[in-house]
Specification:
Helices cover 44% and strands 12% of the residues. With 441 residues, it is α/β, with parallel strands linked by helices. The chain folds into two domains: 189 residues, Periplasmic binding protein-like II (D-Maltodextrin-Binding Protein, domain 2, 3-Layer(aba) Sandwich), CATH 3.40.190; 210 residues, Periplasmic binding protein-like II (D-Maltodextrin-Binding Protein, domain 2, 3-Layer(aba) Sandwich), CATH 3.40.190. β4 and β5 form a beta hairpin. α5 crosses α19 and α10 packs across α20.
């Protein structure tokens, strides 16, 4: 008998009864600032926070605003939170740095943050990270923004992707969830019939590069080697790119219109069982819970299949860091606000607010019922332990990989091959040339 995962709705209901409700207006409920935060008199004035929390249709935005308002009420500060999308945030932040008017507190992925750190624009937060480290689960070093041995950005939340599937569709076809690439292809073929397709990929945004690059790293390839040399045009990376694009170009297990789909289109197709398997993060679960919660009972998940048994399953290490701009108007206030955002009770409510699209980095949150009694979330957390960014497990973040991601350089090979514009070899050769140019700058 299958056990229905604890839903976000049920978890929040239990959390509220356990005292994890947000601070109500005018009622601080005895909740104090985090112990490391210092006295309220230590900070004052205005704080400008540029946030990337626009995901999930802005579901977390009001939760964050409420907690920032509680911070202001205690400290007498006035915090402005500006929410931005990826490209908008990069352009505005670069412009503000050039003008000498950066925000106080910022939020970006580790690669982008490393770019800012390399330019000398971020405050050294090594001491703050040391204060918080015992509260964190073991996470990859790539989750931090580091430069010249110092920590300039602290993980805020993480994210990764797994292979979701419809249990009933696999049962009907007489197949098991795949564990290897060959099995993945075989299952996808057997699940493709009529208007139902076995598997589809997401070509929207930065998703293509965040899919095939970790598959290549799992296969023994690398974007950069231990010395920092670009080695993306290797047999292992070519094999991974060929494998994932063959689902569309060779095996025909994807809808013909796949190149035109946006993220929401794929979520809809999976929910309607028009697509049997989909690599996605917890945002898929959030969407299903909102539209068809009973469907969660028949959804399964596995870590991403590997080429050969014994290989390490790799998925993309997503998520965000918080950092303080060194030359901002109020770095002291920004540092105090950053610490405030790691309050254990509030953080649990915050990450659970969107199912598992945001995976927690605080131990107490990982131990909560929501994450321990939900089998789908457990798979995401398992995958997170081996997830990697573009630098892989050997080299780590670089200042130029953030630029490359912003230019969609990691996406282009997969997009070009699926659209028939280039071969696998040519697309990787062209990407490698552009990466080497960036690495030299």
């Amino acid at each position: 008998m299958s056990v229905r995962p604890l839903s976000r709705r049920d978890f929040l209901r239990r959390s509220l009864s356990a005292g994890l409700a947000p601070i109500a207006a005018g009622v601080l409920g005895g909740v104090a600032a985090p112990a490391s935060e210092g006295s309220p008199a230590a900070v004052n004035g205005a704080i400008n926070f540029w946030s990337r929390e626009t995901f999930n249709n802005g579901a977390r935005m009001p939760v964050l605003r409420d907690w920032v308002a509680a911070f202001d009420k205690i400290h007498g500060t006035k915090t402005s939170v500006q929410f931005m999308t990826f490209q908008e945030s990069i352009a505005k932040t670069q412009a503000s740095i050039a003008a000498g008017t950066p925000p106080d507190l910022g939020e970006q992925g580790p690669d982008v943050g490393t770019q800012f750190a390399a330019g000398g624009n971020l405050l050294d937060l090594t001491a703050v990270a040391s204060d918080l480290k015992n509260e964190f689960v073991n996470i990859q070093r790539d989750a931090y923004v580091t430069f010249n041995g110092r920590i300039h950005g602290i993980p805020w939340w993480s994210e990764t992707r797994v292979l979701f599937y419809h249990k009933d569709l696999l049962d009907r076809a007489g197949v098991r969830p795949p564990g290897t690439w060959d099995e993945w292809v075989d299952v996808a073929k057997k699940l493709t019939a009529g208007e139902q397709y076995g598997y589809a990929v997401n070509l929207d945004g930065t998703s293509p590069g965040q899919l095939w690059v970790p598959l290549g790293i799992s296969n023994g390839g690398r974007i950069v080697d231990k010395s920092g040399k670009v080695v993306a045009d290797s047999p292992q990376m070519r094999e991974a790119l060929q494998f994932i694009t063959d689902f569309y170009t060779k095996h025909k297990t994807m809808p013909a219109a796949t190149p035109t789909y946006k993220s929401n289109d794929l979520i809809q197709l999976f929910t309607l069982k028009k697509v049997a398997m989909l690599v996605y993060n917890g945002e898929l679960l959030q969407s299903i819970e909102q539209t068809n919660p009973d469907l969660l009972r028949t959804i399964g998940a596995v870590t991403l299949p590997v080429n050969k048994r014994g290989d390490v399953s790799r998925s993309f290490l997503g998520g965000f860091d918080l950092f303080v701009f060194a030359k901002s108007a109020n770095p002291e206030g920004a540092t105090a606000l950053l610490k405030w955002l790691y309050d254990k009770g509030w953080y649990t409510r915050y990450t659970a607010a969107t199912y598992s699209s945001s995976l927690p980095i605080l131990k107490d949150t990982v131990k909560s019922d929501f994450y321990q009694k939900n089998e789908l979330t457990k798979v995401l957390l398992q995958q997170l332990t081996t997830a990697v960014r573009y630098g892989g497990p050997d080299y780590g973040n670089t200042s130029w990989t953030g630029v490359a991601e912003g230019k969609f350089l990691f996406n282009q090979p997969m997009v070009d091959v699926i659209n028939g514009k280039k071969s696998v070899s040519q697309s990787l050769a062209d990407m490698s040339t552009e990466l080497r140019t960036l690495a030299k700058q």
